[in-house]
Every structure is written in structure tokens, then in C-alpha cells.
């Protein structure tokens, strides 16, 4: 029996006013600290290094680094348990506290659908599924829970929410966006910021710095090419992609990540008009701008010039994944920036602006006080209450595309259910990319999850028989066939695909299911709309489940009718829209 979807431990408010962080209240304290800092200490604060690049953790103390991140594949050497992560992160934090001014470290990670690199964490539906829920209160609750599981590991910066407006489903990051409607993205992105940070950034270990990303236009590139060029004019760029950042800033977002893409041929990472005039000037953003992963390297092959152009455009912190053994590494970056300041190419006032912004956020988060998480928080990671909340998110994310003759909800009198498709018992496909690894994986990739097959086995009507055949062979004549199809996991450019569609193998599975003469319900795990063709025609019922995460029971809750379908398409999907219209006619 699961507890209420909004366990008492959280006070998620569905709507209501909020007080965005007024970071300016920390300006005086930041300036006082700034006045004590050497130029080397200031430049150190502007550097974020990937943990895998820091073979020598002492460099955090030696160089006064402002931040460390764990990129998608940069896990602790002692494994991926919550404790392994906590021990790993605290090593870096302790280094920062041994610096002359003891300026604390900000540790960041891509917790984009739960604390997704930590084994046993609850994995929520990717944002496209939350977009289908259309429920800001639920998005805020999911973010709050993610914050609580992050706090257990001492990581207090999430590179989330992605507030892209993905226009073309060819883009491999379509699932990282809530949908293709700007106002939906604004509303849900704002809810995620409030869920992560709280009503405002605060010294609570549960207040996690959010990072609205990727500014600006990542979802609007020509042909949906990842890191491509946005050709729209400024009016269209503003109308489509700026409102989600305004909403995030209103909610007090403390950091914004700059996008790899370019606009009319100019890389965002060196676009002074958009980064400084628009974001910091017109929108009044008081937090700090962080680059994407080695993104400044794409500005020009002359790394020193890239450093100059990006910092002068308004970048405040630079994400550097290369260690001393590689080019464009963090030692080279620091040397170049110090040379540029000393040569007057980068005025120290620009450095001071960047460091002031970083220090304001660290002060607002209370990092200068105690920043060691209580070990007891680890028991929250993957706890039943968190899983129940994620199960609720899954339920509300499902979209009923087709339901001929009201096949769904499945009858409780069914005696013989066949389940086909390898996605039915593959947690990796069910979770999608950014799960335990940058690209995700296959099989039982994370502890504590429930595949749809195991959920069906738990929820099947009393006495009924579940027969699982991944390739839909030897099905006999079941009462119903549940087909589960899914995209192989991917992330970023690895998922770019023109005309994304079901595979021939998918269609073969559906055809074999139909040859039984039994009714067929198809459940699809996908990060975006796919061309469905015959699979939709041949299925009596069809459910878009997006990338639901670890809580497969949320799907059976709706398949067997204990909860209704409430999800709505969060983006254009012509075939599906047509089918829904027919189903409702
Ligand atoms: C990646 C992504 C960005 C992520 C960053 C750190 O390339 O573009 O979304 O936060 O690098 O992993």
C-alpha cells in the first residue's frame, strides 16, 4: 500500500506567491571578501573542474578552485552508493576549506531526473513526461525530493532544470525539455527552480542551487541539430526562448548555464549582447553564468582568445573537463586569464563582477557556515515516500493515444496476459539517458527500480497468469497482449536523428502480437514523438509513457484503472493527435 503522493515531509505548494532570492542583500559581504582576495584567488573562483580531471585533489586548495563537478561519467572510485558519493564529495570540499580565505567549494552534478548518478536513487520521469503531467506542483515536489537525495551526498548544485523549448524532435535532447510550448516550459521550469532551491536560496542543506539551461536557443537550432545554429530573428528568439529564463529569474534561480549553440553564426559563449546586455542587464539576473562542458573551446582554436572573448562576453564560471595531461586544461585556463588581466585585455572589474556573483550565491547558500550533510540524510535516498511520489509522477505523465473499444483499463477478470518486447524488463530503457551514466544503459542499471514486467507481475489480477516473451514468440491465445517498445538510451548529440521512428523490429513485435488474434495494448518508452505507422493502427490501445524512470508501478496503476489517464501531449505529435481525436469522436 503506498502512502499519499505528497508525503507530509514536504510542504510543496501547488501555486502561491514566493519570494525570489534577492541576491543583492549579499553584495556587501561579497565585496568585503573580494577586497581581501588576490587576483589569483579571484580567478580560481571562476574555475570549475571535472572531478575526473583532478587527479591531484590538492589542486582545489593550491589554486583556490571555486567549483568541482561530476560530469555524466565521472563517478567516485569507491562505487556509486550514496555513501561513496558523500565521502568522495567531502574530500574536495575539505580541500577548499584549507585555502587562505577558506572560501567553500560548490559541487555540481547533472541531477536532471532525480539524483541520477547515485545507485539506489529514485529516478523520476524525464522532463518531457513531467511536461505531459502539466502539473507544476508535482514538478516542484519531484525537484524537492531530488534536492533531498542530493543533500545526502553533500552535492548542492544541480545543472537543472533544462528550460529548452525543443521545436524539432530530431534533437537528441528533446526529452530534457518539458515540451514545445513556451508557456508550459516557463511554468514548469519555475516550479523546478522553487523545488530545488526552496522559496529562495538558503543555508538549509536541502536548498540546492538550480541552474536554468542552456541559454539561449538550444531547442531551436536548424534541423534540430545539437549544438547547431539558431537562425531566427531576435524577435522570434525572444518570444520563443526568453520567457522560461524570465520565469526562472523571478523564482530566484542562482545560476544559468550558457548554451553550446550559436545564434546567427555567433557562439552563445561569446555573445556579449545576449549574456550581458539581455540576461544581466535587461532581465536583471544577479546570479552567475557558468559555461557548458569545454564549450569555450568551440569559440576559436586560439584558447587564450577563447578565454578572453567568453569572459568579456559575460561568462562568470568556466567548466573545464581537461586535466594537466590534456590541452586547454584548467592550469592553462588560469594562466591565460591571469595574463589577460595583467595585460589589461580583461579589466579586473570584469573579474570582480564574476567573483562577486559567485560569492553572493555561496553566501546565500550558507556555504561559509556548516556545509557537511548530516549522515542520517542518506536514509532518504530511495525511501518509500520518495518512490511513491515518483510513482505519482509516472501516473500523471502517461498519455492515452488510442483506446479502441475501451480496452483500457484492463479488466480485473483477465486470466492470461502475454507481455512482449525487450523494453518490458529493461530498467535502462525505462529510465533513458542521464541514468548512472551519461548515455544511460541497459538492464538493471540502478538498484531499487521496478520494470513494467515486474509491476505487472505484482499487480496482475488475482490468479491470472503472466507469460513473458521478449520476441513475441509462442504466444498462444492470451486474453490480452501487452507490447512494450522503447528507444535505446541516448543523451545529447548521440540521440540526434532525422525522422525518428519505430524500428522494423518494433513493428515485427507488434505484428506477431496481433497474429494471436487477441487485443493488443502497446506502451512506448521514448524521449520524443516517433513515427508509429502500422504499430498504431494494429494496436487496439496505445500509451505514450515517455521515459518514466524507476517506478514502473505507476504504469500498472493506470493500465488496471486504479488511477485515470490524465496526461496530455506536451508537444506536437501529428499521428498521435489524429488518433486521440478519432478515439474521442
Ligand atoms: C553537458 C551538457 C550539460 C551538462 C554539462 C555537464 O555537455 O550540455 O547539460 O550540464 O555537460 O555534464
Return residue spans where pLDDT drops below 50 for at least 5 consecutive residues. Answer: 1-20
Largest sheet, strands/sense/barrel:
6 strands, mixed
Which oligomerization state do the chains in this entry correspond to?
A: single chain
For the largest sheet, list the strands in their spatial order.
Answer: 12-17-16-15-13-14
Number of helices: 20
What is the H level of CATH, i.e. the homologous superfamily of the largest domain? Glycoside hydrolase, family 3, N-terminal domain
Which hetero compounds are present in the coordinates? alpha-D-glucopyranose
How far apart are the termini? 37 Å
Broad CATH class of the largest domain: Alpha Beta
- Rg over CA atoms, rounded to whole Å, is 24 Å
Task: Report the sheet-strand fraction.
Answer: 5-15%
Mean pLDDT metric: 95
Helix coverage percent: 25-40%
Shape: elongated
Q: Can you walk me through this structure?
A:
- The protein has 585 residues and is of the alpha/beta class.
- The chain folds into 2 domains: 23-371, Glycoside hydrolase, family 3, N-terminal domain (TIM Barrel); 398-583, Rossmann fold, CATH 3.40.50.
- Helix content is 35%, strand content 12%.
- The chain contains 20 helices and 17 strands.
- It has a 6-stranded mixed β-sheet with strand order 12-17-16-15-13-14, with helices on both faces. The protein has a 5-stranded parallel β-sheet with strand order 4-3-2-1-11. The chain has a 3-stranded parallel β-sheet with strand order 5-7-10.
- α17 (504-515) links the parallel β15 and β16 (520-525).
- α6 (136-151) packs parallel to α7, α6 packs antiparallel against α14 (384-397) and α16 (452-459) crosses α19 (553-559).
- The longest helix has 17 residues, at 348-364.
- The model is unreliable at 1-20 (pLDDT under 50).
- The structure holds alpha-D-glucopyranose.
- Alpha-D-glucopyranose (GLC) is lined by residues 71-72, 110, 159, 213, 292-293, 492.
- Residues 71-72, 110, 159, 213, 292-293, 492 line the site of alpha-D-glucopyranose.
Amino acid at each position: 500500500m503506498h502512502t499519499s503522493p505528497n508525503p507530509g515531509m514536504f510542504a510543496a505548494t501547488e501555486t502561491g506567491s514566493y519570494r525570489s532570492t534577492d541576491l543583492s542583500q549579499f553584495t556587501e559581504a561579497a565585496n568585503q571578501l573580494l577586497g581581501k582576495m588576490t587576483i589569483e584567488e579571484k580567478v580560481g573562483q571562476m574555475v570549475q573542474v571535472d572531478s575526473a580531471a583532478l587527479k591531484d585533489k590538492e589542486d582545489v586548495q593550491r589554486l583556490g578552485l571555486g567549483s568541482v563537478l561530476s560530469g555524466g561519467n565521472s563517478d567516485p572510485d569507491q562505487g556509486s552508493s550514496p555513501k561513496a558519493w558523500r565521502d568522495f564529495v567531502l574530500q574536495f570540499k575539505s580541500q577548499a576549506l584549507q585555502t587562505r580565505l577558506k572560501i567553500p567549494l560548490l559541487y555540481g552534478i547533472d541531477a536532471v531526473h532525480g539524483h541520477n548518478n547515485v545507485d539506489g536513487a529514485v529516478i523520476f520521469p524525464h522532463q518531457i513526461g513531467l511536461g505531459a503531467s502539466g502539473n507544476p506542483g508535482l514538478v516542484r515536489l519531484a525537484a524537492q525530493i531530488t534536492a533531498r537525495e542530493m543533500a545526502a551526498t553533500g552535492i548542492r548544485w544541480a545543472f537543472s532544470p533544462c528550460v529548452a523549448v525543443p521545436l524539432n524532435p530530431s534533437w537528441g535532447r528533446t526529452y530534457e525539455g518539458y515540451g514545445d510550448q513556451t508557456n508550459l516550459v516557463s511554468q514548469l521550469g519555475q516550479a523546478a527552480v522553487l523545488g530545488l532551491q526552496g522559496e529562495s536560496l538558503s543555508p538549509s542543506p536541502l536548498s540546492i542551487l538550480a541552474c536554468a539551461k542552456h541559454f539561449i536557443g538550444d531547442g531551436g537550432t536548424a534541423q534540430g541539430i545539437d549544438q547547431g545554429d539558431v537562425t531566427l530573428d531576435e524577435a522570434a528568439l525572444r518570444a520563443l526562448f526568453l520567457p522560461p529564463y524570465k520565469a526562472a529569474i523571478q523564482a530566484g534561480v542562482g545560476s544559468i548555464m550558457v548554451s553550446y549553440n550559436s545564434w546567427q553564426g555567433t557562439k552563445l559563449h561569446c555573445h556579449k549582447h545576449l549574456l550581458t546586455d539581455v540576461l544581466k542587464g535587461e532581465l536583471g539576473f544577479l546570479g552567475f553564468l557558468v559555461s557548458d562542458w569545454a564549450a569555450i573551446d568551440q569559440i576559436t582554436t586560439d584558447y587564450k582568445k577563447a578565454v578572453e572573448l567568453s569572459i568579456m562576453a559575460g561568462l562568470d564560471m568556466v567548466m573545464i573537463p581537461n586535466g594537466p595531461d590534456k590541452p586547454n586544461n584548467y592550469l592553462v585556463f588560469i594562466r591565460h586569464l591571469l595574463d589577460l588581466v595583467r595585460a589589461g585585455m580583461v579589466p579586473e572589474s570584469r573579474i570582480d563582477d564574476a567573483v562577486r556573483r559567485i560569492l553572493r550565491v555561496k553566501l546565500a547558500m550558507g556555504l561559509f557556515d556548516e556545509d557537511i550533510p548530516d549522515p542520517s540524510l542518506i536514509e532518504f535516498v530511495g525511501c518509500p515516500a520518495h518512490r511513491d511520489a515518483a510513482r505519482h509522477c509516472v501516473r500523471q505523465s502517461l498519455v492515452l493515444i488510442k483506446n479502441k473499444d475501451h480496452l483500457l483499463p484492463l479488466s480485473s477478470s483477465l486470466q492470461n496476459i502475454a507481455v512482449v518486447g525487450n523494453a518490458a524488463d529493461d530498467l535502462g530503457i525505462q529510465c533513458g539517458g542521464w541514468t548512472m551514466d551519461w548515455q544511460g544503459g541497459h538492464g538493471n542499471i540502478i538498484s531499487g527500480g521496478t520494470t513494467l514486467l515486474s509491476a505487472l507481475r505484482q499487480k496482475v489480477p488475482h490468479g491470472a497468469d503472466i507469460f513473458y516473451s521478449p520476441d513475441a514468440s509462442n504466444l498462444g491465445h492470451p486474453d490480452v497482449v501487452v507490447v512494450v517498445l522503447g528507444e535505446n538510451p541516448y543523451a545529447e548529440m548521440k540521440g540526434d536523428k532525422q525522422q525518428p521512428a519505430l524500428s522494423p523490429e518494433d513493428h515485427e513485435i507488434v505484428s506477431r502480437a496481433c497474429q494471436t488474434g487477441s487485443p493488443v495494448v502497446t506502451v512506448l518508452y521514448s524521449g520524443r514523438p516517433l513515427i508509429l505507422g502500422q504499430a498504431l493502427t494494429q494496436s487496439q490501445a496505445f500509451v505514450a509513457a515517455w521515459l518514466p524512470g524507476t517506478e514502473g508501478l505507476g504504469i500498472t496503476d493506470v493500465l488496471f484503472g486504479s488511477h485515470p489517464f490524465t496526461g496530455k501531449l506536451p508537444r506536437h505529435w501529428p499521428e498521435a493527435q489524429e488518433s486521440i481525436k478519432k478515439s474521442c469522436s
